[in-house]
Specification:
Elements (H helix, E strand, L loop, with lengths): L10 E6 L4 E6 L4 E5 L10 E3 L7 E6 L6 E6 L5 E6 L4 E7 L7 E3 L6 E3 L1
Antiparallel strand pairs: 1-2, 2-3, 3-4, 5-6, 6-7, 7-8, 9-10
Length: about 120
């Protein structure tokens, strides 16, 4: 059992990667990525705040590109964002015109769907 402290308030979304990373999204609008291979390190590997204080509920790692993460923002943000974790930057975003509560990558093609 390990405790990771990086959000103010509730954590709304979690996603494990095959590479040993954990993404967490919170009501505070933060998207944190934790390197679980780093032993007792308690700080996030990277923290993104581009969801503008909207809850980050939807998280999904790309099935083939281990460094690519999709995240969806709540009703105050409504953005689907694609992140390159290695480069520590958002490389694509799309206004969905609605809060994003789920995101799922296709296992057969380089596509994703949101809810």
């Amino acid at each position: 059992v390990r405790t990771l402290n990086g959000h103010r308030g509730c954590v709304c979304g979690l996603a494990f990667s095959r590479a040993g990373l954990l993404a967490s999204g919170g009501n505070d609008g933060l998207l944190n990525v934790w390197d679980l291979r780093a032993g007792s390190r308690s700080a996030p590997l990277v923290c993104f705040d581009q969801h503008r204080s909207a809850a980050v509920k939807a998280l999904a790692w790309h099935p083939d590109a281990a460094n690519v993460l999709a995240s969806g923002g709540g009703s105050a943000d409504r953005m689907l964002r694609l992140w390159d974790i290695d480069a520590r930057r958002c490389f694509n975003s799309h206004d969905t015109r609605s809060q994003v509560t789920g995101v799922l990558w296709s296992t057969r093609s380089n596509e994703l769907v949101t809810a």
